[in-house]
Amino acid sequence: IMHFYNIIKELSDKTEVMLFFDMDGVISSYDAGKKLDFATKRPLTENINKIKKISTLNNVTLYILSICKKNFQIEEKNNWLDKNAPFFDKSNRIIISKEQHPNIDSPTLKSDFLKNLNTNSQIVLVDDDNTVIKKVLDVTDNVMVFQDSELID
After folding, report:
1. What is the pLDDT of residues 109-149, one digit of tens each?
2. Exposure pattern of 52-82 as b/e (b: 16+ CB <10 Å)?
C-alpha cells in the first residue's frame, strides 16, 4: 500500500486537492553540474508511476511547480513532461524562469506563487529542496508540504 497515495486519498475524500510537484529531484534526476540541460534528465519512473496513480483520484488536480534559470528551459521542461509525464495537463504546468525574476530566489518564487493562490482547495506541495519547504511553511498557512521522500514506501 502506498503511504503517500493513502494520505492524498484520505484528504481528497474530504476536499478538493491542488497537488503541486517539483520536477528536479522529484520526477527527474537532479545533477547540480548539469543544471541547464533538462532534455537529457533521467525520469524517476517509480515516482512518476506513483503520481500517475494519484492522478486517477477524484477531487485531485495535479500541477507542476518548477523553477528554471533561463527562459528557454520552460520549453525544455514542457517537452520533457510531454515525453515522460504527459498526464500533467499543459495548463497545470507552472514553470517560472529566474531570468524573468532577477534577484528572487527559488524558495521565494514558489512560496509567493502558492501564497497568492485564491482557492478553497487544499494546496499540497511535494518538493526535495529543504529551503523551499521551510520558506513555504514559514509564509503560508494553508499549504501542506511533503518532502519527496514521502513518495518512497
Report:
1. 999 999 999 999 999 999 999 999 999 999 999 999 999 99
2. eebeebeebebbbbbbbeeeebbebbbebbe
Rounded CA-CA distance 51/48 in Å is 5
DSSP line for 98-111: GGGSTT--HHHHHH
pLDDT, tens digit, 9 for 90 and up, residues 3-19: 999 999 999 999 999 99
Residue 98 burial class via C-beta count within 10 angstroms: exposed 0-12, middle 13-18, buried 19 and up: middle
Tell me the H-state helices in 55-116: 72-84, 106-115
Do 110 and 81 touch, CB atoms closer than 8 A?
no
pTM for this prediction? 0.95
